[in-house]
Recover the amino acids of this structure.
Protein backbone atom coordinates (compact mmCIF):
# COMPACT_ATOMS: atom_id res chain seq x y z
CA UNK A 1 0.00 0.00 0.00
CA UNK A 2 2.82 2.35 0.92
CA UNK A 3 4.29 1.79 -2.52
CA UNK A 4 1.03 2.79 -4.22
CA UNK A 5 0.84 5.97 -2.12
CA UNK A 6 4.38 6.88 -3.18
CA UNK A 7 3.57 6.09 -6.83
CA UNK A 8 0.37 8.15 -6.73
CA UNK A 9 2.12 11.19 -5.24
CA UNK A 10 4.98 10.91 -7.72
CA UNK A 11 2.64 10.58 -10.71
CA UNK A 12 0.67 13.67 -9.71
CA UNK A 13 3.70 15.72 -8.67
CA UNK A 14 5.85 14.96 -11.70
CA UNK A 15 3.03 15.58 -14.17
CA UNK A 16 2.05 18.81 -12.42
CA UNK A 17 5.54 20.32 -12.75
CA UNK A 18 5.78 19.31 -16.42
CA UNK A 19 2.39 20.82 -17.24
CA UNK A 20 3.05 23.92 -15.12
CA UNK A 21 6.14 24.66 -17.19
CA UNK A 22 4.12 24.73 -20.39
CA UNK A 23 1.33 26.85 -18.86
CA UNK A 24 3.12 29.36 -16.67
CA UNK A 25 3.64 32.76 -18.28
CA UNK A 26 7.32 32.99 -19.19
CA UNK A 27 7.99 35.85 -16.75
CA UNK A 28 6.97 34.00 -13.59
CA UNK A 29 9.91 31.64 -13.33
CA UNK A 30 12.39 33.93 -15.02
CA UNK A 31 13.76 35.48 -11.84
CA UNK A 32 17.52 34.82 -11.82
CA UNK A 33 17.53 33.32 -8.32
CA UNK A 34 14.72 30.89 -9.15
CA UNK A 35 16.47 29.85 -12.34
CA UNK A 36 19.80 29.34 -10.56
CA UNK A 37 18.17 27.27 -7.85
CA UNK A 38 16.24 25.17 -10.36
CA UNK A 39 19.46 24.40 -12.22
CA UNK A 40 21.36 23.51 -9.04
CA UNK A 41 18.69 21.41 -7.31
CA UNK A 42 19.05 18.45 -9.70
CA UNK A 43 22.84 18.66 -9.31
CA UNK A 44 22.52 18.26 -5.54
CA UNK A 45 19.95 15.48 -5.77
CA UNK A 46 21.75 13.50 -8.44
CA UNK A 47 25.08 13.74 -6.59
CA UNK A 48 23.51 12.55 -3.33
CA UNK A 49 21.58 9.75 -5.04
CA UNK A 50 24.61 8.55 -7.01
CA UNK A 51 26.69 8.43 -3.83
CA UNK A 52 23.99 6.73 -1.76
CA UNK A 53 23.13 4.07 -4.30
CA UNK A 54 26.80 3.28 -4.82
CA UNK A 55 28.06 3.35 -1.24
CA UNK A 56 25.21 2.12 0.91
CA UNK A 57 23.11 -0.91 1.72
CA UNK A 58 20.08 0.08 3.76
CA UNK A 59 21.41 2.58 6.26
CA UNK A 60 24.98 1.23 6.32
CA UNK A 61 27.82 2.77 4.34
CA UNK A 62 29.66 0.12 2.32
CA UNK A 63 32.25 0.00 -0.42
CA UNK A 64 31.67 -2.96 -2.73
CA UNK A 65 31.72 -3.94 -6.41
CA UNK A 66 29.34 -1.09 -7.27
CA UNK A 67 32.16 1.39 -6.62
CA UNK A 68 34.24 -0.26 -9.35
CA UNK A 69 31.19 -0.22 -11.64
CA UNK A 70 30.65 3.49 -11.05
CA UNK A 71 34.33 4.20 -11.69
CA UNK A 72 33.93 2.41 -15.04
CA UNK A 73 30.87 4.54 -15.82
CA UNK A 74 32.88 7.66 -14.95
CA UNK A 75 35.66 6.60 -17.27
CA UNK A 76 33.16 5.90 -20.06
CA UNK A 77 31.70 9.39 -19.56
CA UNK A 78 35.16 10.96 -19.79
CA UNK A 79 35.63 9.11 -23.07
CA UNK A 80 32.28 10.57 -24.24
CA UNK A 81 30.67 7.15 -24.61
CA UNK A 82 26.95 7.02 -25.45
CA UNK A 83 24.41 6.71 -22.63
CA UNK A 84 23.81 2.97 -23.04
CA UNK A 85 27.55 2.20 -23.06
CA UNK A 86 28.01 4.13 -19.81
CA UNK A 87 25.29 2.10 -18.08
CA UNK A 88 26.50 -1.17 -19.62
CA UNK A 89 30.07 -0.49 -18.46
CA UNK A 90 28.90 -0.01 -14.87
CA UNK A 91 26.82 -3.18 -14.94
CA UNK A 92 29.51 -5.32 -16.61
CA UNK A 93 32.33 -4.20 -14.31
CA UNK A 94 30.19 -4.64 -11.18
CA UNK A 95 29.24 -8.15 -12.30
CA UNK A 96 32.85 -8.90 -13.19
CA UNK A 97 34.19 -7.80 -9.81
CA UNK A 98 31.54 -9.87 -8.03
CA UNK A 99 32.33 -12.91 -10.18
CA UNK A 100 35.95 -12.56 -9.09
CA UNK A 101 34.76 -12.58 -5.49
CA UNK A 102 35.01 -8.81 -4.88
CA UNK B 1 18.99 10.45 -19.32
CA UNK B 2 21.63 12.92 -20.37
CA UNK B 3 21.62 15.88 -22.65
CA UNK B 4 23.74 15.61 -25.72
CA UNK B 5 25.17 18.02 -28.23
CA UNK B 6 23.16 16.90 -31.20
CA UNK B 7 24.27 19.10 -33.99
CA UNK B 8 27.41 21.12 -34.33
CA UNK B 9 27.20 24.89 -34.47
CA UNK B 10 28.20 25.35 -38.12
CA UNK B 11 25.61 22.79 -39.16
CA UNK B 12 22.87 24.79 -37.42
CA UNK B 13 23.94 27.98 -39.14
CA UNK B 14 24.16 26.41 -42.56
CA UNK B 15 20.74 24.80 -42.41
CA UNK B 16 19.15 27.85 -40.81
CA UNK B 17 20.40 29.92 -43.72
CA UNK B 18 18.94 27.49 -46.23
CA UNK B 19 15.52 27.55 -44.54
CA UNK B 20 15.35 24.77 -41.93
CA UNK B 21 16.92 21.38 -41.50
CA UNK B 22 15.96 18.49 -43.73
CA UNK B 23 13.30 16.37 -42.05
CA UNK B 24 15.43 13.24 -42.37
CA UNK B 25 18.25 14.80 -40.33
CA UNK B 26 15.87 15.81 -37.54
CA UNK B 27 14.25 12.39 -37.47
CA UNK B 28 17.68 10.68 -37.41
CA UNK B 29 18.79 12.73 -34.37
CA UNK B 30 15.50 12.13 -32.60
CA UNK B 31 15.52 8.39 -33.25
CA UNK B 32 19.12 8.08 -32.07
CA UNK B 33 18.34 9.67 -28.72
CA UNK B 34 14.95 7.99 -28.36
CA UNK B 35 16.26 4.49 -29.03
CA UNK B 36 19.44 4.73 -26.91
CA UNK B 37 17.66 6.09 -23.86
CA UNK B 38 14.41 4.22 -24.44
CA UNK B 39 16.22 0.90 -24.19
CA UNK B 40 17.45 1.75 -20.70
CA UNK B 41 13.88 1.25 -19.51
CA UNK B 42 15.09 -2.34 -19.24
CA UNK B 43 17.49 -1.30 -16.46
CA UNK B 44 14.61 0.48 -14.72
CA UNK B 45 12.37 -2.59 -14.92
CA UNK B 46 15.06 -4.81 -13.48
CA UNK B 47 15.98 -2.26 -10.78
CA UNK B 48 12.33 -1.88 -9.79
CA UNK B 49 11.86 -5.64 -9.54
CA UNK B 50 15.05 -5.92 -7.49
CA UNK B 51 13.70 -3.21 -5.16
CA UNK B 52 10.56 -5.27 -4.50
CA UNK B 53 8.29 -3.23 -6.79
CA UNK B 54 5.69 -5.33 -8.64
CA UNK B 55 5.63 -5.53 -12.44
CA UNK B 56 2.35 -3.61 -12.49
CA UNK B 57 3.78 -0.86 -10.28
CA UNK B 58 6.92 -0.57 -12.42
CA UNK B 59 4.79 -0.27 -15.57
CA UNK B 60 2.48 2.31 -14.00
CA UNK B 61 5.55 4.38 -13.09
CA UNK B 62 6.93 4.28 -16.63
CA UNK B 63 3.53 4.99 -18.18
CA UNK B 64 2.47 7.81 -15.88
CA UNK B 65 5.64 9.33 -14.39
CA UNK B 66 7.86 8.98 -17.47
CA UNK B 67 10.88 10.86 -16.18
CA UNK B 68 13.65 8.36 -15.63
CA UNK B 69 15.69 9.93 -12.84
CA UNK B 70 12.59 10.42 -10.69
CA UNK B 71 11.55 6.81 -11.26
CA UNK B 72 14.98 5.44 -10.29
CA UNK B 73 15.04 7.75 -7.25
CA UNK B 74 11.62 6.57 -6.12
CA UNK B 75 12.35 2.85 -6.30
CA UNK B 76 15.77 3.40 -4.75
CA UNK B 77 14.24 5.25 -1.80
CA UNK B 78 11.50 2.64 -1.37
CA UNK B 79 14.05 -0.19 -1.54
CA UNK B 80 16.06 1.52 1.19
CA UNK B 81 12.94 1.51 3.38
CA UNK B 82 11.97 5.15 2.94
CA UNK B 83 8.42 6.18 3.81
CA UNK B 84 6.19 6.98 0.82
CA UNK B 85 6.22 10.73 1.45
CA UNK B 86 9.98 11.28 1.58
CA UNK B 87 10.45 8.87 -1.34
CA UNK B 88 7.92 10.79 -3.44
CA UNK B 89 9.39 14.14 -2.35
CA UNK B 90 12.83 13.17 -3.64
CA UNK B 91 11.35 12.04 -6.97
CA UNK B 92 9.29 15.24 -7.18
CA UNK B 93 12.23 17.59 -6.53
CA UNK B 94 14.20 15.77 -9.20
CA UNK B 95 11.27 16.29 -11.58
CA UNK B 96 11.07 20.07 -11.02
CA UNK B 97 13.69 20.66 -13.69
CA UNK B 98 11.06 19.58 -16.22
CA UNK B 99 9.06 22.72 -15.38
CA UNK B 100 11.95 24.82 -16.62
CA UNK B 101 12.24 22.74 -19.78
CA UNK B 102 8.51 23.36 -20.29
CA UNK B 103 9.01 27.12 -20.02
CA UNK B 104 11.58 27.11 -22.79
CA UNK B 105 9.61 24.65 -24.93
CA UNK B 106 6.35 26.58 -24.73
CA UNK B 107 8.03 29.56 -26.41
CA UNK B 108 9.82 27.38 -28.92
CA UNK B 109 7.02 24.99 -29.91
CA UNK B 110 3.96 27.30 -29.49
CA UNK B 111 1.71 24.28 -29.06
CA UNK B 112 -2.06 24.62 -29.49
CA UNK B 113 -3.84 24.76 -26.12
CA UNK B 114 -5.58 21.41 -26.68
CA UNK B 115 -2.32 19.56 -27.31
CA UNK B 116 -0.48 20.89 -24.25
CA UNK B 117 -1.82 18.48 -21.60
CA UNK B 118 -0.60 15.55 -23.72
CA UNK B 119 2.67 17.15 -24.81
CA UNK B 120 3.43 18.01 -21.17
CA UNK B 121 3.90 14.33 -20.40
CA UNK B 122 6.81 14.19 -22.85
CA UNK B 123 8.64 17.22 -21.46
CA UNK B 124 11.85 15.53 -20.26
CA UNK B 125 15.64 15.91 -20.66
CA UNK B 126 15.88 14.19 -24.04
CA UNK B 127 12.92 15.74 -25.86
CA UNK B 128 14.07 19.17 -24.65
CA UNK B 129 17.64 18.58 -25.77
CA UNK B 130 16.55 17.49 -29.25
CA UNK B 131 13.98 20.29 -29.65
CA UNK B 132 16.38 23.01 -28.48
CA UNK B 133 19.07 21.78 -30.86
CA UNK B 134 16.87 22.59 -33.87
CA UNK B 135 17.18 25.89 -35.73
CA UNK B 136 13.49 26.52 -36.39
CA UNK B 137 10.03 25.80 -34.97
CA UNK B 138 9.03 23.20 -37.53
CA UNK B 139 12.15 21.10 -36.92
CA UNK B 140 11.82 21.58 -33.16
CA UNK B 141 8.23 20.29 -33.22
CA UNK B 142 9.24 17.32 -35.35
CA UNK B 143 12.25 16.54 -33.13
CA UNK B 144 10.18 16.82 -29.96
CA UNK B 145 7.43 14.55 -31.31
CA UNK B 146 9.68 11.84 -32.75
CA UNK B 147 11.92 11.74 -29.66
CA UNK B 148 8.91 11.72 -27.34
CA UNK B 149 7.08 8.98 -29.21
CA UNK B 150 10.11 6.71 -29.68
CA UNK B 151 11.26 7.11 -26.11
CA UNK B 152 7.80 6.67 -24.62
CA UNK B 153 7.08 3.46 -26.53
CA UNK B 154 10.51 1.89 -25.98
CA UNK B 155 10.81 3.01 -22.35
CA UNK B 156 7.50 1.34 -21.51
CA UNK B 157 8.08 -1.84 -23.50
CA UNK B 158 11.57 -2.32 -22.03
CA UNK B 159 10.32 -1.54 -18.49
CA UNK B 160 7.87 -4.41 -18.83
CA UNK B 161 10.52 -6.73 -20.27
CA UNK B 162 12.99 -5.76 -17.54
CA UNK B 163 10.49 -6.28 -14.74
CA UNK B 164 9.42 -9.67 -16.16
CA UNK B 165 12.99 -10.65 -17.01
CA UNK B 166 14.30 -9.86 -13.54
CA UNK B 167 12.88 -13.16 -12.28
CA UNK B 168 14.34 -15.11 -15.16
CA UNK B 169 17.71 -13.45 -14.64
CA UNK B 170 17.69 -14.58 -11.03
CA UNK B 171 20.02 -12.70 -8.71
CA UNK B 172 20.14 -9.23 -10.25
CA UNK B 173 23.06 -8.35 -7.98
CA UNK B 174 25.22 -11.12 -9.42
CA UNK B 175 24.64 -9.57 -12.86
CA UNK B 176 25.68 -6.18 -11.56
CA UNK B 177 22.28 -4.67 -12.39
CA UNK B 178 22.14 -2.77 -9.09
CA UNK B 179 24.88 -0.55 -10.57
CA UNK B 180 22.59 0.59 -13.41
CA UNK B 181 20.69 3.13 -11.26
CA UNK B 182 23.74 5.03 -9.97
CA UNK B 183 25.31 4.90 -13.46
CA UNK B 184 22.19 6.55 -14.91
CA UNK B 185 22.38 9.27 -12.24
CA UNK B 186 26.07 9.83 -12.93
CA UNK B 187 25.44 10.09 -16.69
CA UNK B 188 22.78 12.74 -15.99
CA UNK B 189 24.94 14.59 -13.49
CA UNK B 190 28.20 14.74 -15.46
CA UNK B 191 27.13 17.31 -18.10
CA UNK B 192 25.75 19.57 -15.34
CA UNK B 193 29.13 19.94 -13.58
CA UNK B 194 30.37 22.84 -15.68
CA UNK B 195 31.34 25.51 -13.15
CA UNK B 196 32.91 25.65 -9.69
CA UNK B 197 29.48 26.42 -8.20
CA UNK B 198 27.97 23.25 -9.62
CA UNK B 199 30.92 21.16 -8.42
CA UNK B 200 30.66 22.70 -4.95
CA UNK B 201 26.94 21.85 -4.81
CA UNK B 202 27.64 18.27 -5.91
CA UNK B 203 30.45 17.83 -3.37
CA UNK B 204 28.43 19.24 -0.48
CA UNK B 205 25.37 17.17 -1.45
CA UNK B 206 27.52 14.04 -1.57
CA UNK B 207 28.88 14.69 1.93
CA UNK B 208 25.41 15.48 3.32
CA UNK B 209 23.78 12.51 1.58
CA UNK B 210 26.32 10.01 2.88
CA UNK B 211 26.90 11.71 6.23
CA UNK B 212 23.26 11.64 7.32
CA UNK B 213 22.52 8.21 5.82
CA UNK B 214 23.39 6.14 8.92
CA UNK B 215 21.56 8.40 11.37
CA UNK B 216 18.33 9.54 9.67
CA UNK B 217 15.37 7.58 8.23
CA UNK B 218 15.69 6.47 4.60
CA UNK B 219 14.85 9.20 2.09
CA UNK B 220 15.46 12.09 4.47
CA UNK B 221 19.24 12.40 3.85
CA UNK B 222 18.60 13.04 0.12
CA UNK B 223 16.22 15.87 0.98
CA UNK B 224 18.84 17.36 3.30
CA UNK B 225 21.42 17.00 0.54
CA UNK B 226 19.12 19.05 -1.72
CA UNK B 227 19.79 21.97 0.64
CA UNK B 228 23.32 22.06 -0.78
CA UNK B 229 21.90 24.09 -3.70
CA UNK B 230 20.53 27.06 -1.66
CA UNK B 231 23.44 26.88 0.80
CA UNK B 232 26.09 27.19 -1.91
CA UNK B 233 24.11 29.97 -3.65
CA UNK B 234 23.82 31.85 -0.34
CA UNK B 235 27.54 31.48 0.42
CA UNK B 236 28.40 32.66 -3.08
CA UNK B 237 26.12 35.67 -2.64
CA UNK B 238 27.83 36.61 0.62
CA UNK B 239 31.30 36.40 -0.85
CA UNK B 240 30.59 38.59 -3.86
Amino acid sequence: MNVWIAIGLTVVGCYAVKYAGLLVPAGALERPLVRRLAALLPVALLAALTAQQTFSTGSALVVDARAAGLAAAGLALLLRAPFLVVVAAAVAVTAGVRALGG
Amino acid sequence: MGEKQLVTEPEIRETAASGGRPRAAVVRDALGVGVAVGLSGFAFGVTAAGAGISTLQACVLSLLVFTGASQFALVGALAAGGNPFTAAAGAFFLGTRNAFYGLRLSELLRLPRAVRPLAAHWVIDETTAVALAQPDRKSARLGFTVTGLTLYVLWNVTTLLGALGAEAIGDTRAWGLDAAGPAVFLALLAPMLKTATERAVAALALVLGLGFLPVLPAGVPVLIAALAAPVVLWMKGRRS
